[in-house]
Every structure is written in structure tokens, then in C-alpha cells.
Amino acid sequence: MNQRPAILIARAVFPEVVARLREHFEVETNEQDAPFTPAQLIERLQGKVGVMTTGSERIDAALLAACPQLRVAANIAVGYNNFDVPAMTAAGVLATNTPDVLTETTADFGFALLMATARRICESEHFLRAGQWNRWALDMFAGAEVHGSTLGILGMGRIGQAIARRGAHGFGMNVIYHNRSRLDTGSEAACRARYVSKAELLQQADHLVLVVPYSAESHHTIGAAELAQMKPTATLVNIARGGIVDDAALAVALREKRIAAAGLDVFEGEPKVHPDLLTVPNVVLTPHIASATLPTRLAMANLAADNLIAYLGTGQALTPLNPSVQAGQGR
Ligand code: DGY
């Protein structure tokens, strides 16, 4: 009997997904769920043709050179800044991600974080838990209006559009957006969103939600200069990636009340968080959980598994990032 292909699941995933993969492959898992160092990952990948990754595993030229049998890396995430896709394409290694299955869940969370930030939910809960609530006051934790306000969205892909629909149709918000390319008129109408320049977006938004992918070009898209253009009453929400916001500059802007508040699900250098963000009261901090519902995380893991099964079985993945590799350029 032919030896079955060997794969590595780099982080702990749901048992039912591991069981599905075991029907097709020799599977090595990481039950401890401790992220591998780059050297450990290379060691574990010896003899493996496939790997299931999360954002904590980097697939770059050095790893590809050290793992000549690797043919496919399936990320359990829609974002893939942990992949050097050009290096993977050059090496003939297929990259896949998990679009669509997390869109609505992530948009729900973006909206939840916006609401918690604008309406000061966490700050007021801490106050109550600390036993500081001894009288009601008219202006106590008075926050920013959400309904009828101006929602700005930077990055109008699938998740940006899902947030726009919630704002426009659910909360009667005036939705403006900026994106590398403008949406077609049908998509703009569905989101009731108006395209503006980045400067207009910064200046006009009451609530600015960031949903742009991370790359060298989007590094510190929001820094001190951009924060200075925002309204002093504005809130900023980052559910995209750490590094899109200059966290040190944001902490200063929050402390000096140059903007009202921020809601952050992602951080530069996470899981570390800039210490100054931990001491300012007007920020809501969550540990990169925007897509974290059990059904969605299961759907993401299953899609990554489907990509491994399909590509290693038929040569055609479901959601390839570098499809030229499928057209005969692969290892
Ligand atoms: C994604 O899918 O990109 C989420 O941020 C989880 O990593």
C-alpha cells in the first residue's frame, strides 16, 4: 500500500477536523497548542507535503528552502500577512486562506466593538465592578451617538461592506468609505455607502472602522498625522491587523483626548500589547477574536482542511491565493 501524504496541523484545531484530515493523510498535530518557533516549524515540516497554519506561523523563503517537500500551506484565516505569497509562488507552493465563511461574524464583532467603544460599555462596567457607583448623574459615561452618525470604513472588501450594511440599514448611519479601488455602483447602493478620499474619511467620520489587509504599504496607515485629522469626538475601531495603526501614537492621542475612544482587536506585536494602551481608560481591548464564534471558527478550520484535501487530492484548491501554482507550476 502506498504511504499516505504527511501533513502538519501547526496549532490545535477541532477534533472533528483532525479526524477528517486523518481519513486522507498521516497527520502530526500540536496538541500543546504552543506556537512553534521558526526553527521548530521547519523541523516539524520535514517530510510533510502540507501544513495547516494560523496567523502565528510564518511561511517565508527561508522556511520554503528548508522544507523542499512542502507543497501547500492552508491558513485558517482570511488575512495572510504571515505568508510571503511571492516567495511561495516562486517555490511552487500553494497558499490558501478562508474568505467568506467569516465575513458576517467578523462584521458583527466590528459593530459590537464600535458600540462598546462609542457607548463606553467596558469603561462603565469597570467603574461599577470597582464599587465606584454610588449615585446616578446626568452626564455619567455619556458617550457618542451611533444611530444617525457618520460611519467611516477604510477598506471596503467583503467585511467592510458587511459592516456598511449594518450601519446603513440597521442604524441609519451615513456611510462613507475609502478603498484602493471604488466599488461598482450596485455594491455602493447595496451598502448605501459613498466613496470619499482618505482625508475626507478621516475628517468626516464619527466612527472610523479599519478593515484593510496588512502589508508593507499599509503599515501605520493610521499614525499621529492621521489621528490629528480626526474629530476630537471620533472613535477608531481596528479589527484588521496590528501594524495598521501606530499603537504608540494612538495611546498618546487617547490620553490627550485628541480622539474620544478606540476599540482594538489587533495589536502591533500581539499577543503583546503596547503598555500605554493598557493604562488609558478610553480604549476597549480584545484579544483578536473578531471571527471567534464556534460555528465560524469550525467553518474556517473545515475550509482550510478542504483546501488541503482538494489540492493534494486533485490539484485544485477551493480558495487559492496563488492559483498559478495550480496550473502546473507547483512542486
Ligand atoms: C483572519 O481570519 O484573518 C482573522 O484575523 C483570524 O486570524
UniProtKB/TrEMBL annotation:
Superkingdom, natural source: Bacteria
Residues annotated as domain D-isomer specific 2-hydroxyacid dehydrogenase NAD-binding: 111-290
CDD domains the UniProt entry points to: GDH
InterPro entries: D-isomer_2-hydroxyacid_DH, D-isomer_2_OHA_DH_cat_dom, D-isomer_DH_CS1, D-isomer_DH_NAD-bd, NAD(P)-bd_dom_sf
D-isomer specific 2-hydroxyacid dehydrogenase catalytic domain location: 7-321
Keyword annotations from UniProtKB, A to Z: NAD, Oxidoreductase
Keyword Transmembrane found: no
Keyword hit for Aminoacyl-tRNA synthetase: no
PANTHER family named in the record: 2-HYDROXYACID DEHYDROGENASE-RELATED, GLYOXYLATE_HYDROXYPYRUVATE REDUCTASE B
Protein name, UniProt field: D-isomer specific 2-hydroxyacid dehydrogenase
The organism's taxonomic lineage, starting at the top: Bacteria, Pseudomonadati, Pseudomonadota, Betaproteobacteria, Burkholderiales
One Gene Ontology MF term: hydroxypyruvate reductase [NAD(P)H] activity
Family assignment from sequence similarity: Belongs to the D-isomer specific 2-hydroxyacid dehydrogenase family.
One cellular-component annotation, GO: cytosol
